[in-house]
Please model this.
Amino acid sequence: MGVLQLLKSQFVCHLVICYVFLFSGLVINLLQLCTLPLWLVDKQLARRINVRLGYCISSQMVAALEWWSGTECTLYTDPKSFPLYGNENAIVVLNHSFEIDFLCGWTFCERFGVLGSSKVLAKKELSYVPVIGWMWYFLEIVFCKRKWEEDRRTVAQSLQNLHDYPENFWFLLYCEGTRLTPKKHQVSMQVAESKGLPKLKYHLLPRTKGFWVTVQNLRGTAAAVYDSTLNFRNNETPTLLDILNGKKYHADLYVRRIPLESIPEDEAECAAWLHKLYQEKDSFQEHYTQTGRYPGPTVSPPRRPWSLINWLFWACLLLYPLGLLVAQLISSGSILTILASVALCSAASLGVRWMIGQTEIGRGSSYGDKEVPLNNN
Ligand SMILES: CC/C=C\C/C=C\C/C=C\C/C=C\C/C=C\C/C=C\CCC(=O)SCCNC(=O)CCNC(=O)[C@H](O)C(C)(C)COP(=O)(O)OP(=O)(O)OC[C@H]1O[C@@H](n2cnc3c(N)ncnc32)[C@H](O)[C@@H]1OP(=O)(O)O
Ligand SMILES: CCCCCCCCCCCCCCCCCC(=O)OC[C@@H](O)COP(=O)(O)O
Model:
C-alpha cells in the first residue's frame, strides 16, 4: 500500500471530510432557508441561487468520488446524442443495484453541467436526512410515499411545477422502486410471472405508474428519456465507505437517448413499453457480464475541477476555526469542556454514520420484499 493510499484510509482524514461536509451542509441549508422570502419576489432568481447552493453540497460527494477515490467513469453512447447531454431536459431511467449508483449519476451530472439542478423521484423518508434531504426541499425534488393512491396527485403536481424551471435538469427515476436484493428479486419475479411477463435476471420488475405519470407530466418540458445502465468493472460493488477509504473503481454507464414523443401516451401501452425497456436493459447487463463491456463506442467525459475547488473552499473556511477551537480547548485545560467537546464530536460522527447508513442496502427498506396476493387475471 502506497503512502497516499495509507493516508486515505486513516480515520482522521474521514473525520475531516465528514466534518467539512456536515458543517458546510448545515450552513448551506441555512442559506437556502434565507432564500424563502425571495421566492415570493423573484421565484426564478431564488431557484437559480438554490441550484448553486445545492451544487456546493452535492459536489462535495462528487469530489470524494472523482478526486479522493479517483474513480473513473466511461460512457457508452451514440456520438450523435452526446452533444445534447446537458443541453436539454431529460428523464433518466437507471438500474438500482449499487449503493453508490446515485453518486455515479451525480458524477455524470457534474460532467455535463447539470449537477445543481438534477432531480429525482425520491422516497419521502430521504427528505428527513439532514443536509441532503433538507437541500432537496429547495431544489424541488419530487418525493413519493410509494403508495400510489397518495402519490398520484402530489407527484403529478410536483412535476407540473417544473414546467418553467430556469435551468436544464435531468430527472432521475429508479423504476425498480427499491434496491435489488435476492429476496426482492424473487418476489418481483413472482409478480412478473403472475402478469405473464418474461423474467428479468438482473433487475426487479419495474413499477410503471411513476414512469407513466412522469412522462405525461413532463411532455413539452423534457425532450428525451435517457435509458441508462450502470455497472462497475470486475464485478465490484462499491460502498460509500469504500469511497471514503479512497478505493478506486471504474464505472461503466450505457446510455441510449429515446425521444419522448416515441413513448406511448396511453397508460397501459406506456407500461408495456417500460416492461420491454427493462427486458432490453437485462440483455445489456447480460452482454456486460459476458464481455465486460456494453455495445457501441465509448467516451470518457473528463472530470472538472469545480467540485474540488468547492471542497477546498469550504475546507479552508471551516478547518481554520476548528483548528483554533481545538487549540483553545487544549490550552484551557478544563476537563469538563474537553469532555463536552468530545461528546459533541462523537454525536456529529454518529450522525454522519447514520447518514451513510441511508445508502446501505443492508439497512434498506422492506418495500417489495413481501409476498403479495397475486391476481392472475
Ligand atoms: C448522459 C448521462 C446519463 C445519465 C446519468 C445518470 C443519472 C443522473 C441523473 C440524475 C441524478 C439525480 C439525482 C440523484 C441523487 C440521489 C438519488 C437518491 C435516491 C432516491 C431514490 C429513491 O428514493 S428510489 C424510491 C422512490 N422512487 C420510486 O419508487 C420510483 C418508482 N416507483 C413508482 O414509480 C411507483 O409506481 C410509485 C412510487 C409511483 C407508486 O408506488 P406503489 O408501491 O404504490 O407502486 P405501484 O402502484 O406501482 O405498485 C403496485 C403495482 O406493482 C405491482 N407489484 C406488486 N409488488 C411488486 C413487486 N414486488 N415488484 C414489482 N411490481 C410489484 C402490483 O401488481 C401493481 O401492479 P399494477 O399492474 O396494478 O400497476
Ligand atoms: C464528501 C463526502 C462526505 C461523505 C460523508 C457524508 C455522507 C452523507 C451521505 C448522505 C446520503 C444521503 C442521500 C442518500 C441517497 C440514497 C439513495 C438511495 O439509494 O436511496 C435508496 C432508495 O432509492 C430506495 O431505498 P430502499 O427501498 O432500497 O431502502
Observations:
- The first strand starts at residue 72 and ends at 77.
